[in-house]
Design a protein that fits this description.
Radius of gyration: 20 Å
Shape: globular
Bound molecules: nicotinamide-adenine-dinucleotide
Order of helices and strands: EEHEHEHEHEHEEEHHHHHHHHEEH
Mean pLDDT: 95
Largest sheet: 7 strands, mixed
Oligomer: single chain
Strand order of the largest sheet: 1-2-9-6-5-3-4
Strand content: 15-25%
Length: about 375
């Protein structure tokens, strides 16, 4: 597809997220976002995206900068201290200075890694994020949270480092496996429930179309989800309060991911997590049954999971107690008082916590 227009979504006064189709076909789209004095650019990407990285490198070189291509291990194995150290080595040997830049081309693992390396090299150089999964477009690449994993857990080391710009070219999603696209839609739906009900209306009107890369709705869904994230992070860069609403469904989701040793896609876990916390909100008098049912219906219609095995409660509860949002022994959740009406639930009782689990269990 060729580009017809570019939607520009500002993230406060800091940077812009560009959304459209065929954006990467125009070399200037990315080069315009680089610092004006840039002379060296490190393009960080996984092997499956080598062709795209090569084309991007060509465009950046044509604009006058020297490009270093850095192929990193695929998926979560990119987010390690060893890979970050290797990239620091490449930057050092190539003489990268403060006015040089990094481009992160890939899914959320690559944008997290590239952002972290940019945040730490010389205490911070510019990073342009070019997300290539739906999850990275609507979530990981926007907002400036960067990080890597350690043996002790995911995302334990990181930095807040807003990008110089983000380019979401929907055409790159054409090669994304369907299951990854669907998982990304869970975060889009999350934005619908916490802030923008039009997202839910769009999905409900034609779920099959919403789940297609070449569907008529995907662009609007991405734009709306990016706007939600942009507005929230612009108001709260460092996750002090408002930004917590983006973690809707994530407390239970992170517990499922841990219990499943990260074999579940994040978006799949978030889908079940949203149903869990909707049930918890109903049990604690926050939410109507109809809105809980709407969670199940919307997620189901996209092929996202809404149930989880019923024999893991102790492990899930232990994992939720370790969640970053917990304070002391009290579990804290982002809940809804209604669609687009997020609120907080502190210290729900053990019976409600377990009853919500029973409601999402397959038995
Ligand atoms: N920083 C944040 O705010 C934030 C928010 C959410 C998630 N994350 C992080 O994002 C990561 C998950 O990101 P993800 O779901 O994008 O996974 P991912 O980066 O592992 O990508 C999934 C797979 O898709 C492949 N891929 C990527 N783009 C492709 C394309 N266009 N065509 C074909 N294959 C493609 C990748 O090579 C990989 O194998 C996690 O590490 C998570 O912690 C960060």
């Amino acid at each position: 597809m060729t580009t017809t227009s570019t939607t520009v979504i500002p993230v406060g006064d800091d940077y812009e997220v560009l959304v459209g189709r065929g954006l990467l076909a125009d070399p200037a789209t990315v080069t315009r976002l680089l610092p004006t004095a840039v002379t060296r650019v490190l393009v960080v990407h996984p092997a499956p995206l080598s062709d795209l990285a090569g084309r991007l490198a060509h465009a950046v070189e044509a604009a006058g900068a020297r490009v270093h291509l850095a192929t990193v291990p695929d998926a979560e194995s990119a987010k390690t201290a060893a890979v970050a150290a290797d990239l620091w080595g490449q930057l050092g040997r190539a003489g990268f200075t403060r006015s040089d830049a990094v481009i992160g081309l890939g899914g959320g693992t690559v944008t997290d890694l590239a952002g972290f390396v940019a945040a730490t090299w010389l205490r911070g150089v510019a990073v342009v994020q070019v997300p290539t999964t739906l999850l990275a477009m609507v979530d990981a690449a926007v907002g400036g949270k960067t990080g890597i994993n350690t043996l002790e857990g995911k995302n334990l080391v990181g930095a807040f480092h807003p990008p110089a710009g983000v380019v979401c070219d929907l055409d790159v999603l054409a090669t994304l496996p369907a299951a990854d696209l669907t998982a990304g839609l869970a975060e889009v739906v999350k934005c619908g429930f916490i802030a923008d009900p039009v997202i839910l209306d769009l999905v409900e009107a034609d779920p099959a179309d919403a789940a297609r890369v070449d569907g008529s709705r995907l662009r609007e869904l991405v734009e709306r989800a990016v706007r939600v994230k942009a507005q929230v992070v612009a108001a709260d860069l460092r996750e002090s309060s408002l930004r917590e609403i983006l973690n809707y469904g994530h407390t239970f989701a992170h517990a499922v991911e841990q219990v499943e040793s990260y074999s579940w896609r994040h978006g799949d876990a978030v889908a079940v997590g949203m149903v869990y916390v909707a049930e918890l909100a109903r049990l604690t008098g926050h939410l109507d049954q109809a809105v809980v049912a709407r969670h199940r219906a919307v997620l189901d219609s996209l092929g996202l999971p809404t149930t989880y095995r019923g024999d893991r409660w102790e492990a899930l509860l232990a994992a939720m107690r370790r969640d970053k949002k917990s304070r002391g022994d009290l579990l804290r959740f982002v809940v809804l008082d209604g669609v687009a009406r997020p609120s907080r639930l502190e210290g729900p009782g053990a019976a409600d916590l377990e009853a919500a689990y029973a409601a999402v269990s397959t038995g």
